[in-house]
Automatic annotation (TrEMBL):
Molecular function terms, GO-annotated: metal ion binding
Organism: Exophiala xenobiotica
Biased composition (Basic and acidic residues): 197-218, 227-245
Function: Part of the spliceosome which catalyzes two sequential transesterification reactions, first the excision of the non-coding intron from pre-mRNA and then the ligation of the coding exons to form the mature mRNA. Plays a role in stabilizing the structure of the spliceosome catalytic core and docking of the branch helix into the active site, producing 5'-exon and lariat intron-3'-intermediates.
Any single GO CC term annotated in Swiss-Prot or TrEMBL for this entry: U2-type catalytic step 1 spliceosome
Listed name of the protein: Splicing factor YJU2
Subcellular location: Nucleus
Phylogenetic lineage: Eukaryota, Fungi, Dikarya, Ascomycota, Pezizomycotina
Region (Disordered): 197-298
Length: 298
């Protein structure tokens, strides 16, 4: 409970009072201002709904409302408390004229011998009180009925609006679906095809132009070109012939027997011509006298 009484409160370092905005006007509570207050019952009373006695000095958490009534420019306040047994609402007001309180509804003030016996509240007989209560009850019932009717009307209005909204939504959805089905599916394809056609036509036109240009060029330069071509061809052919005429013999590594020049011209030894050399036997490389290691034959 002690923290309730502290005079200085902790403000964190990042606290910025300028960030605390005022409540916008449309969010402020409207209607009669009520404050929660704690009070003591200013007089003894009896609950009219359950007959419970509430004695003077009983503490309540009450609501305090400022009324429009005034007495000599003194504001009159109304307090709302609840019966301790049945929780029905009991209201009473301040009475500046008599420096007292007046019980308004929900309870009956007990008899107090020190009060003015001429006051209307005390003069009220049981019959009159019953009448008053009945009247109040009827008023309340009427209010409730009116509220119910208003609520019903509001509900009907709301449902009507909802139907309208649903209809509008349905229409929009249908339109969207139609757009999706019809225009998106068809028109986009069409546009794409059109673009493709255009591109193809352009390419074809270019190709045709190229072919035309080539043909014209060939026609104009055909004679000179032909001559040049011929010369070139002839040159190439002659070159080709030369190369063909003197083909390089593939190098052979066969042992060729040298024809010995006669030591003395005119003096030739009469011998049989040397027999054709035996087919080349692969000569083994000169060994190092260590035997052969490169063959598995032996
Ligand atoms: Zn009660």
């Amino acid at each position: 409970m002690s923290e309730r009484k502290v005079l200085t409160k902790y403000y964190p370092p990042e606290f910025d009072p300028s960030q605390i905005a005022r409540t916008p006007k449309h969010l402020r509570p409207t209607g009669p201002k009520t404050i929660a207050v704690r009070l003591m019952a200013p007089f003894s009373m009896k609950c009219t709904s359950c007959g419970e006695y509430i004695y003077k000095g009983r503490k309540f958490n009450a609501r305090k409302e400022t009324t429009d009534e005034k007495y000599l420019n003194i504001t009159i306040y109304r307090f709302y408390i609840r019966c301790t047994r049945c929780s029905s609402e009991i209201t009473f007001k301040t009475d500046p004229k008599n420096m007292d309180y007046t019980c308004e509804r929900g309870a009956k003030r007990n008899f107090e011998s020190w009060r003015d016996p001429e006051s209307t509240e005390l003069k009220e007989t049981d019959e009159e009180r019953l009448d008053r209560l009945e009247r109040e009850e009827a008023e309340e019932a009427e209010n409730a009925e009116r509220n119910a009717m208003e609520e019903l009307e509001q509900k009907m209005e709301e449902s009507k609006r909802e139907m309208q909204v649903a209809d509008a939504l349905d229409e929009i959805m249908q339109r969207n679906a139609r757009i999706e089905r019809g225009e998106k599916g068809g028109k986009e394809e069409e546009a794409l095809a059109q673009v493709r056609d255009l591109a193809r036509e352009k390419r074809e036109a270019e190709e045709r132009e190229d072919a035309e240009a080539a043909r014209r060029a060939f026609e104009s330069a055909s004679v000179a070109q032909a001559r040049l071509e011929e010369i070139k061809l002839r040159k190439q052919a002659s070159k080709h012939d030369e190369t063909e005429r003197a083909p390089q013999p593939p190098p052979s590594f066969e042992r060729v027997k040298k024809v010995k020049n006669p030591l003395v011209p005119g003096l030739v030894r009469k011998t049989e011509p040397a027999p054709a050399p035996a087919p080349a036997v692969p000569t083994k490389p000169a060994g190092l006298g260590l035997g052969d290691y490169d063959s598995d034959e032996d």
